[in-house]
Amino acid sequence: MYFFDEVMNPETFKTDRLLLTPTSVDDASLFLELLNTPKWIEFIGDRNVKTLNQAKEYISSRVLPQYKRLGYGNYTVSLLSDGAKIGCCGLYDRKGLEGVDIGFSYLPVYERQGYGYEAASCIKEVAFNQFKLQKIGAITAKKNIASQRLLEKLGLVFIKKIQLENDPEELHYYELTK
């Protein structure tokens, strides 16, 4: 269950252990680290972001435009206990996919502690109840078993194998209808 805090921006969500805030250029240091983790590079792809300025540009050009267009997008996930930024989770309008998909990524030290499920459950609920989406999809690399398990735990169902434009890798596409 997610909670709104009257003092916070209405697009900010809180769970029992996490705070999900719209990503901003202030999150560039997290993105610099996250985009260069081995799992990000293996399963999502090298975004060639190697400096703090490149991370700021990545957020400005790839993350913020969707917020302006749709009112939702990528959320930075932080621990309520100490404010540590641990990863991201969000709803994405990706070229080559019909509809919106849910995605997530966390720094390695914060994996396997239930944060991914907690944040993604919140985003799933928000997608259906606040943003009034009728379905959400998800894509994952064929080899990314952990991601597939999380999607299935969230209630998404494998639908088919797909390939995105200009991407030779075959991906697994999952979906959940409200």
Task: Give the gist of this structure.
By secondary structure, the chain is of the alpha+beta class. The chain is built from five helices and eight strands.
Give a description of the structure:
- The chain is an alpha+beta fold.
- The protein has a domain at 13-133: Aminopeptidase.
- Helices cover 31% and strands 26% of the residues.
- The chain is built from five helices and eight strands; from the N terminus they run E-E-H-H-H-E-E-E-H-E-H-E-E.
- The chain is globular, with a radius of gyration of 15 Å.
- 31% of the residues are buried.
Describe the largest sheet.
Answer: 5 strands, antiparallel
SSE succession: EEHHHEEEHEHEE
Number of helices: 5
CATH architecture label name of the domain at 13-133: 3-Layer(aba) Sandwich
The CATH superfamily label of the domain at 13-133 reads Gcn5-related N-acetyltransferase (GNAT)
Mean pLDDT level: 90
Helicity level, as a percent range? Answer: 25-40%
Low-confidence stretches: 1-8
* Major β-sheet strand ordering: 1-2-3-4-5
Shape: globular
Identify the notable features of this structure and list them briefly.
178 residues; alpha+beta; Aminopeptidase; five-stranded antiparallel beta sheet; three-stranded antiparallel beta sheet; 5 helices; disordered N terminus
